[in-house]
Structures are given as C-alpha cells and as structure tokens.
Write a structure and sequence with these properties.
This protein is of the alpha+beta class.
Length: 707
C-alpha cells in the first residue's frame, strides 16, 4: 500500500489520502452502525481493538483484530460474522488488498447484510480484480436503489467497456523496472536533473528509516530514495536521500520547482490518539544536498489533508490533493498561486476533473498537459491515469490513455523525460498483496525540441537569464533557464522561430531557427553566449600575419559574429582594442596594435555598423591580460586575478611563458554606452515609435530589451 491516501492510508506519503482519514464523528457513526454484541468467547475484545485501530486509520492492525474476532465467532452466528466481514472489507479496501476485500464483501452478501452501498463498494473492488461481469452485476443492483449515484453509473460503464478497451490497446509500451523495485511498495517516481539522470521515488523497503511497522500498511513508513543513471544508461541501486529529509514518518510523492532548487513532497506524521493528516513539505537544495524540510502552510484547516504536490511548468501554480470542504467529494485536485510574496489565491479544479470519487497524483508534461489519477471517471478499475488539456475556452478536456498504461489495478504517479512522452509511473497491477512497483512507459511519437544554453561569453552559465521565443505561428513565450544555463522547449515543424536571450548586465543574443518536418524526433541545439557589459569581451579567432595588421580570411567568421551581435544590440557603442605581448618595443607594439584595431573597425563599418558606435584603440603591451576564473579550468597553474605582465611571465618555464604570451596577444571589446540613438540633442529619452500592427507591436515588446 502506498501512502496513497492521507496519513491514515497505506503508503500514506505517496498516493493519497484517498477516502482515508474520515472525521472522527463519521468514523464513530460507522462503527456504531456496525457494532454488535456477540457471545463468542474473546471476539468482543478483538472487535474493540479493531474499532480503535480503525478510528485512527490503522487499517492493517484493524484487519488483524477483526480477523481474530471472525475466527472466534461460531459459524452459526451468521449475523455477527456478517458484521465483522463488513469491517474487514472496509479495512482491506483501504489497504488495497482487493482480493481479500472481494472475499470479505462476498461474506457480507452471503450472510444477508448487504445494502446498496455494499453492492457499490463490492463492484468497485471487483473492477480492481478484473472481474468485469461480476462488477457489472453489482453496479446494476446498486443503481436500483441509487439511480443518481455517479460512482455507480460510471462504474457500470467501466465494467461494460473495460474488456473492449483492453482488447483495443494503445501504442504505449510498458515495462516493469526491477532495478528500482523491492519486495515492498515503490511508487511516485520523479525524474530530476538537467539530463533527467536522477530518479526520486518513495519506498517502504527495509532500508527505510525507522524500526516500527506501520499499523496502516504493516510495512515500514515510506522514505524518499534516489537512483542515478550513469553515462552508459545504467541505473544505480536506490539509496535513501541523504540529509535530514527522511524521518521516522511517511515521506513521499515528491516534485520539484522548474529551477530545481525546491522540492515539495507529502509527509504524514503519527499520533497514537488521533487520525493522521497528510501535509505538504518543502526543502531547499544547497550544494547539491536537500535541507531539512519545513511545512508549507496551504490552509489553516487542521482537519483536512493536503498531499501530492505538483508545480506547473511555468512555476506559477502548486497543484495538490485535498479532502477539504468545497470539493466534489472524496479527494479533489486543487491549486494555489505561487508568488514572490508567498502563497496566493486557491481554487478547486472543478467538476470536469473532480468527481465524487478520488482524484490524486497530479503531474505535468512540459507541454502543459495535466496528468492525474482517478477512480471516479470511466476506466479499467482502481486508479486510472487521465490526461487533462485545456481548450480555447479554458475548459478541461479529459482523455483516457487506454491499456497498457492503465490496468484494472491502481496506476498513478507519472514522470516525464523532458519533452518526450516517456518516463516512469507506479502500479500495483498483478500484485496480490497490493504493493506498488515502478514501471517504465513510452509512447512512440515524433517530437521536435530545442535545447539551448545561455552563458557568459568566456564565462559560466547564466541561470538568471531569460529567453524570449516568437514563432510565425503566433508563438510568444518567455522561457526560464535552469541552474546549468539550459532550457528546453518543444517546437512545431514548419514554423520559423526567433529566440532572444537576455540577462541583466549582458548584451542580448538572438538566434533564428526554421524547424523542418521529419519522420523522426529531433532536438536542435543552440548556444547563447552573452557578452558582458562591464568586463572586456574576447573576440576569439581573429588572425593576422606575423608583424602585420591585415586580417586573414580565417577571421571572417568571428568578425561576422561580432557584426551580428552589434546589430542585435543597436544601442550599444564599444571600444575595440588590440593587444600585444611584452616582447618588442612599446612604440612598435602600440603602433601595430592600433593598426590591427583599425582593421577590425573598418571591417565592421564595411559590414554596416555605424562608425560613431566604434572606437579603435591599440594598447600594445600596456594592458596585460587579467585571468578570470573560467580560464583557470583550462590552465590549472593560473589563478583568478593573475596579471600576465612581464614580471609574472618571466618566472614561468618556457612552455607556460608562450601560453601567457598567446593570451596577451588578443583582440577584445568593452561596452562604453547602451544608450546610442536613444537620446535627443538635449539628453532626453526619445519617444518610442508606435507600431500600427498588433503582431508587430508584440514582437517589438519582446525584443526591444536594453540592459
């Protein structure tokens, strides 16, 4: 069992609170309805113990006590046995022990104690075992007394259509992943990392923290584990997440913010006297480790559970599951706004998604499609996976992915490998004990995507950057950048895109791409090196003949890139400088450097760059290079801040001296102004020209960026 419900259900941290944690008053009402007096020796004591366990949501312990009571009740006391069977059915239902639940419900029917609700619950368990004909019969009986019951009517349709749905199948390929699985429950996988090379998931295996067995599941409380994939694609043995993330309580169903700096997950604490309620926790990542978690205060409601967090791809919403008032019944999907000032407005996702049953385990594909699990929509039995997409009217449209992604068991908790429709999920299909296991899935499809990197020219990645993306199909997006300076975005074949990378303190960089139709998936790789506004920027691959200033043909590519950069940043003026090493006279080196700087500027002017934007300067050997941190990775014997003057170089051996001399012989530029053409004669900002067409205005707003 999977903490799939709230704190009181099996696998508590992972799957949901499903019908868990009923309010004490409701539990007591149920127990009173089921209460009875038996003359059987010792049975009443076990019944009392079982009822206490049940009130706390300890279904495993309750089932054991009720089973003891059943065996101690003589066969002739049919009424007493029937009532105990009803209690056992409820416990097995919550434990996901469907086969045992079916047996218990059969006893309730055999002893003549079944009502309409019994037939409904029995039918739902029969669906989970794949006994569709028998389930159909039970739903029909339930509907005779409950004609407007949505769960019964949806269950009937499910039972009637399930066999055909299985036979039709789908293009999904599903494979059980033994490398992740144990002899207990493993569920709620979540990929992590820029290359999706880490898999986090929850497990009740023996390596989980704590020694006590859960009265809910009969297993250890769940912990979060992680496995890593090496360069050859092999996954390592899962290990508990290091640090203070895991506790003696249940932890599970984790997810990550788009920048991968924050983890959200479910935790279910214990209390010997009260039902347990699930809560959402957060943990920040620092130095590649997760810090001790803190509670996320979604609501002041202390009698409801909050579980199964998922962050929208744009990072603006936190989706979660709750049984709080105001929903459609059972467990519902909700969302709350994530703002710079904390949590904002909260809303229920509505009846298009939520049902009187249970909706749980939300997750997103990067394209914005919402995936979740439900036992209230038409499906194959248990929790099925559904896809929710918003139409042009912002209404949710629900799709059932079919078999074999779904089964008659519980299927839930997807995670996607980037833009592709492949990844991992959890299911208890085929496990008589109800334990969940991790499966891989893939849906063959053609996906075109862009993988881009934004970084400082001659420096490190720029996670603070943003990328603006405009397509001739109406696409207008602002993309965030991950910690390694990368971003990914799905694109459409036949569309022309323009992307502009921008970051405070740096010049903009633009790339254009035409996505060609193809019969196979393809990922376009683009680089966005940003030139600093405050530091000298090296123009690499500028070549001159020995002791000459004429540009060699090999320099054309680098110079054309500089022309492109200046055109992309039309309000920038630069000082273009040439430098020499310390050898030779100062007068000669400075004169040669000046001629070389003049040659580069002439090339730029001939290419259409305004002369007023360019200042050529030959420094000769006056300004030896100062080493920046990035260069120390290539030359380990250099330190950040080293100045390559004559006194420094002459202390080195000959090979290192030559390296330093090469570094000094450079052409670079420094940004002087970022306001060229923006000011009038009086120094005031010129009025911006109005663009008549809306589409042109939108493009201008996106790309007219000056830092």
């Amino acid at each position: 069992m999977r903490c799939k419900y709230t704190a009181v259900e099996p696998k508590l941290t992972a799957k949901l609170i499903r019908e868990s944690k009923m309010k004490l008053s409701n539990i007591n009402a149920i127990l009173m309805a089921l209460a009875f007096v038996t003359s059987s020796c010792g049975a009443d004591a076990y019944i009392k113990k079982g009822e206490k366990n049940l009130a706390l949501g300890e279904y495993f312990d309750a089932a054991n006590n009720f089973k003891q009571a059943y065996t101690r009740t003589p066969a002739k006391e049919k009424m007493a046995r029937g009532r105990i069977s009803a209690k056992l059915a409820l416990c097995y239902d919550k434990m996901n022990a469907s086969q045992k639940a079916v047996g218990a419900y059969q006893n309730v029917l055999r002893y003549g104690l079944a009502d309409a609700n019994t037939h409904l619950l029995f039918g739902r368990q029969l669906l989970k075992t794949g006994a569709y004909k028998a389930a159909e019969e039970q739903f029909k009986i339930a509907l005779d007394s409950l004609p407007n019951n949505k769960l019964a009517s949806e269950g009937l349709i499910s039972a009637q259509q399930a066999t055909q749905t299985k036979n039709e199948g789908s293009r999904y390929i599903v494979k059980r992943m033994e490398v992740f699985n144990s002899h207990r429950a493993d569920y709620s996988p979540m990929l992590f990392g820029d290359e999706h090379n880490k898999l986090y998931f929850s497990s009740t295996r023996n390596e989980a923290k704590g020694n006590a067995l859960s009265g809910i599941t009969g297993a250890k409380p769940a912990d979060i584990f992680v496995s890593e994939r090496d360069d050859k694609g092999k996954w390592t043995k899962p290990e508990p997440v290091p640090g203070g993330l895991n506790t003696d309580y249940d932890e599970g169903a984790c997810c990550f913010s788009p920048d991968q700096r924050t983890m959200y997950f479910t935790q279910c604490t214990t209390n010997p006297n009260y039902p347990r309620y699930a809560q959402v926790m957060t943990s920040a990542r620092a130095d590649a480790a997760w810090a001790k978690a803190t509670k996320l205060e979604i609501s002041k409601d202390t009698l409801s559970s909050f579980a199964h967090p998922a962050v929208s791809p744009n990072g603006q919403w936190l989706y979660f599951v709750s049984d709080m008032p105001g929903g459609q019944g059972g467990q519902d999907l909700w969302r709350i706004k994530l703002t710079t000032n904390g949590l904002g407005e909260m809303e229920n996702l509505g009846e298009d998604i939520n049902t009187p049953g249970n909706e749980c385990f939300p997750t997103f594909r990067p394209n914005g499609d919402l995936y979740f699990s439900s036992d209230g929509h038409v499906g194959l039995g248990g929790l099925d996976i559904y896809v929710a997409k918003q139409n042009n009217n912002q209404q949710w449209e629900i799709e059932h992915p079919g078999f074999p992604l779904n089964s008659n068991g519980d299927d839930f908790g997807l995670t996607f490998e980037g833009p592709y429709n492949r990844g991992f999920f959890a299911s208890n299909r085929g496990d008589a004990r109800g334990w969940d296991h991790i499966y891989a899935f893939e849906y063959p499809e053609i996906v075109h995507s862009i993988k881009g990197w934004v970084y400082e020219q001659d420096g490190y990645e720029l996670p603070a950057a943003q990328v603006f993306m405009v397509g001739n199909d109406g696409t207008n997006l602002k993309l965030g950048v991950l910690a390694d300076g990368s971003f990914r975005q799905v694109v459409k074949p036949g569309v022309e895109y323009v992307m502009l990378a921008t970051c405070k303190g740096y010049l903009n960089h633009k790339e254009e791409l035409m996505v060609k139709p193809s019969e196979a998936s393809h990922e376009y790789v683009l680089q966005f090196p940003l030139a600093s506004i405050t530091a000298p920027v090296l123009i690499d691959n500028i070549f001159y003949d020995l002791d000459k200033f004429s540009l060699r043909p090999e320099s054309k590519q680098a110079l054309d890139e500089l022309v492109k950069l200046l055109n992309e940043n039309p309000n920038v003026t630069i000082e273009l400088s040439a430098h020499c090493d310390y050898r030779g006279s100062a007068e000669y080196n400075k004169a040669l450097a000046q001629k070389r700087a003049d040659a580069v500027v002439k090339y730029l002017i001939d290419a259409g760059i305004a002369e007023e934007r360019l200042t050529p300067v030959g420094y000769g050997k006056e300004k030896p290079k100062t080493i920046r941190k990035k260069l120390t990775e290539r030359y380990k014997w250099l330190k950040e801040g080293d100045v390559l003057d004559e006194s420094f170089i002459t202390q080195l051996d000959k090979d290192k001296q030559e390296v330093c001399n090469q570094l000094n012989r450079r052409t670079e530029f420094v940004v002087q102004r970022t306001t060229f053409g923006l000011l009038d004669d009086k120094g005031n900002l010129k009025a911006k020209k109005k663009t008549p067409k809306k589409a042109e205005k939108e493009t201008e707003d996106v790309f007219d960026i000056v830092e």
